[in-house]
Design goal:
Strand content: under 5%
Order of helices and strands: H
């Protein structure tokens, strides 16, 4: 399902605007699909079996 968020007002991505704004959704999806075609990019079709949720290392603290 295509989702659309206003990150300025909904940084937590809790309220998808895809259904209430189909014109914007379709325009952005068209741009994305055109970019995939132009760059020969591919979406993953299988889960990464090496991925372990929560296993990412914490960000390093910045030096003062």
């Amino acid at each position: 399902a295509v989702e659309l968020y206003n990150l300025r007002d909904d940084i937590g991505e809790r309220n998808s605007l895809a259904a209430s704004n189909p014109a914007m959704r379709d325009e952005l999806l068209g741009d994305l699909l055109a970019w995939f075609k132009a760059t020969d990019a591919r979406l993953p079709t299988e889960r990464n079996s090496d991925y372990v949720p929560g296993s990412a290392r914490p960000a390093k603290k910045k030096k003062k």
